[in-house]
Write a structure and sequence with these properties.
The protein is an alpha/beta fold. It has one domain: Purple Acid Phosphatase, chain A, domain 2 (4-Layer Sandwich), CATH 3.60.21. 21% of the residues lie in helices and 20% in strands. A 7-stranded mixed beta sheet has the order 4-5-3-2-1-16-17, covered by helices on one side. The longest helix is centred in the first third of the chain and has 15 residues. It is globular and about 55 Å long.
Length: 332
């Protein structure tokens, strides 16, 4: 099973899909699922953004990518008259995988909760599947809850379908998601961390002791959640991926309470500067997961030449709609 792992997107959702599509074309392989460490930037407009996100969106309008590319609504906001976006269709038609994410601290949480209440499915799609809608796959008014961008619930184990290779079927990937920040984590998310019950833990924050830094006074400090450290030790997943800190942290082993090892990896944010500098390294990687023998699984950040050479002009059409190209720092 090939899993694409991406760091915080902050609205650059279509770029994430395009990066995966490009990797498939370059390697001649298929990605089965895309996983994101949070801060996807699910906001229906700049007015629903938190203060920090709104401030960044005035400088980087691509942070409103969810509204621009994935909300699919007409100017009157009618839920029954959806607008097709050719760029989105072009990218998604070439992919069979969906994107699954843990909610970060920069999402429109009331909107996500509303969808969960209206459509009792987990995980819940936060976008609308325009391709399926155009093909008549759903009844009138049954648009929400189906899509390609899914928010994972905190707490329960979610099984993502295994790959089908050479007429063989891999076992499903057992995933558990948790934000990890004290004021953004649901109480039930911490319940029942049963050892070896999941293959992969996806969190936004990392565990206490994973990172070390220096504060403004020169004092060394350990970042992360103490509660997540204890939780991770009891859950004992094979792999743990986190974001939030906007830097790449290569795999390290953390011993669980049952003696097994968890490989913990931190992903950089997916960011392409407008000043001509490269795309953020360590923001995109591939986990080759062997469900039959997890010890043979391997994670590698994408460091191919095509990826390292990407600049703003190469990807701007996947960040801003045509009418906004090259407006750069324009306030939305």
């Amino acid at each position: 099973m090939n899993l694409a792992i991406l760091g915080d997107l902050h609205g650059r959702i279509l770029l994430a899909f395009w990066l995966v599509k490009r990797w498939q074309e370059e390697h001649g392989e298929t990605v089965d699922h895309i996983l994101c460490t949070g801060d996807v930037g699910v906001f229906r407009s700049i007015h629903e953004m938190d203060k920090a996100s709104k401030r960044w969106a005035t400088k980087h309008p691509e942070e409103l990518g969810f509204e621009k590319f994935f909300l699919y609504r007409n100017p009157r906001n009618s839920p029954l008259k959806l607008c097709r976006h050719d760029t989105v269709d072009e990218v998604l038609e070439g992919l069979s995988c969906s994107l699954y994410f843990v909610a970060g601290n920069h999402e429109e949480h009331p909107y996500i909760r509303l969808l969960r209440e209206q459509y009792a499915r987990e995980p819940i799609a936060v976008d609308v599947d325009w391709v399926g809608t155009a093909r008549g796959l759903y009844g009138e008014g049954d648009f929400n809850g189906y899509g390609r961008v899914f928010c994972l619930p905190e707490g329960p184990v979610i099984e993502l379908p295994g790959a089908t290779r050479n007429n063989g079927h891999e076992p499903p990937l057992r995933v558990r998601a948790i934000n990890g920040l004290d004021n953004h984590t649901a109480p039930e998310a911490w319940e029942r961390p049963v050892a070896d019950s999941v293959d992969l833990l996806l969190s936004h924050e990392t565990y206490r002791g994973r990172l070390e830094g220096v504060d403004a006074t020169g004092r060394r400090d350990h970042y992360g959640s103490e509660r997540l450290a204890e939780f991770l030790g009891r859950l004992a997943p094979r792999w743990h991926f986190f974001g939030h800190h906007h830097w790449y942290y290569s795999p390290v082993s953390k011993q669980s309470r049952v003696g097994s090892q968890t490989q913990s990896v931190g992903l950089n944010q997916v960011f392409v500067p407008m000043d001509g500098t490269p795309i953020a390294p360590g923001s995109f990687g591939i986990l080759r997961y062997d469900g039959g023998d997890p010890s043979r699984s391997r994670f590698d950040p994408v460091e191919d030449g095509w990826f390292a050479k990407l600049r703003w002009p190469d990807v701007v059409r996947f960040l801003l709609p045509v009418g906004e190209l090259r407006r750069g720092s324009r306030t939305p």
